[in-house]
Amino acid sequence: MKKELTGCTEQELLELHRSAAETYERYRSMGLHLDMSRGKPSPEQLDLGEDVLRTVCSNEDCISPSGVDCRNYGEFWGLRELRQLFSEILNVPSEMILIGGNSSLTLMYDTLSRAMLSGMAHSERPWSKEEKIRFICPSPGYDRHYTICEALGIEMISVPLTGDGPDMDLVEQIAASDASVKGMWIIPTYSNPTGDIYSEKTLRRLAFMGAKAKDFTIMVDNAYPLHTLDGNFIEPVNFYEMLIEAGHPDRAVFFSSTSKITFAAGGVSCIAMSDANMKIALPYLKAQFICKDKLNQLRHLRLFPDLDAVKERMLLHAALLAPKFRVVDDVLSDHLWGYGIASWNHPKGGYFISLKVLDHTAQHVIRLCKEAGLVLTQAGAGFPYNQDPDDRYIRLAPSFPGIDELKTAAELLSAAVLLAGTEKLISDRRQ
Amino acid sequence: MKKELTGCTEQELLELHRSAAETYERYRSMGLHLDMSRGKPSPEQLDLGEDVLRTVCSNEDCISPSGVDCRNYGEFWGLRELRQLFSEILNVPSEMILIGGNSSLTLMYDTLSRAMLSGMAHSERPWSKEEKIRFICPSPGYDRHYTICEALGIEMISVPLTGDGPDMDLVEQIAASDASVKGMWIIPTYSNPTGDIYSEKTLRRLAFMGAKAKDFTIMVDNAYPLHTLDGNFIEPVNFYEMLIEAGHPDRAVFFSSTSKITFAAGGVSCIAMSDANMKIALPYLKAQFICKDKLNQLRHLRLFPDLDAVKERMLLHAALLAPKFRVVDDVLSDHLWGYGIASWNHPKGGYFISLKVLDHTAQHVIRLCKEAGLVLTQAGAGFPYNQDPDDRYIRLAPSFPGIDELKTAAELLSAAVLLAGTEKLISDRRQ
Question: Is this complex's ipTM strictly greater than 0.90?
Answer without folding.
Answer: yes
